[in-house]
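dumping the sequnces here before i forget
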Amino acid sequence: MSRVKIYLSLCLRIISGGILALAGISKILEPVENFQGQLAQYEWLPMVLIKPLAHVLPWLEWIIGLSLVIGWQMRKAAVGASLLYSSFLAVLLISVALGISLENCGCFGSFGFHPKPWQMILIDSSSLLMALYIWRKGSDCLTLDQLLGKTNV
Amino acid sequence: MSDFLKKRGFLFVALIVLVAVPLGLKLLGSGSTEIKSVSSEKWKGAKSAPILITEYSDFQCGACKAAQPELEKIMKAFDGKVKVNFRHFPLAGHKHSLVAHQAAECANQQNKFWVYHDLLFETQDVWGKTENPTGNLIDYAGKAGIDLKEFAVCLEETSTLPTVQEERKSGELLEVTSTPTFFINGKRFVGGRVLAGEAPAWIQEELTK
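..and the predicted 3d for all of it:
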């Protein structure tokens, strides 16, 4: 892999994983009911799903996001991140198509950054592309997998 | 150190970062849900009611307006057993919210808070979309039977601003981040949909205690 590609993949890993990890930790540090309320804004999501999702999703975002950043089980983390970003995109696009008015997507808890749904669609699509790149091409720069003697995990 | 132990050490550190650090931060930061009293309490419902609903709300927030019928349904379903306490929580993203809350507090000084509260939610789409809502706010005061001279002076002096800020601050201490947020005997419900879906069962549970 050329030097440019090595640094490019590192940057993409940090951005894609960092966004996910930030979104996760911002919600973990808040009362879970706050995120539950944000999810309930998506009126087409069944109420029975909202409570378990509010408990599980922030942890998934945090663990997968940070795994990608530190390069631990990196390829698996990249697949996980791609699946998460695809689901977020689907949820946002369905809500926009149904005309549900969302003042704030609830993606980053109360971290002061409250993107509008269309901004989040842009962020999610670009992050999805970055995660897919990592999954396909891997990243060999500053990874925990390397330290543990594993390659292309 | 053997290679095996070295790898184990890395995994251990990774595990701590991934799970223990956020858990610890969450435990350290988790605030109390004890509702502390504020200087201007606004009550609705039977004083002796065993169920206390504290509502943090923003007059310019669409979700807060949508939650009002759900709250009314709960009050009707548990008539005499529920009392509501309103707290101002104007959100920064809502241009006219702060002045609307100050106006509502001016109405409260003339014991007309709840009439004015209902008018503000009913007309949210009107005053919320004007460039300067002061005229609308004074009109609604007239409709609510409020002494207009006193109201206009109160609104101009912004003397109710500290009360609004005090209530917002009390919400921030309870980690309120969006509106409407309800606390029912200490348990948090965020948004009208969650309130409608989960609050009745919780109230029933509290009543049978």
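Chain A has a mean pLDDT of 89.
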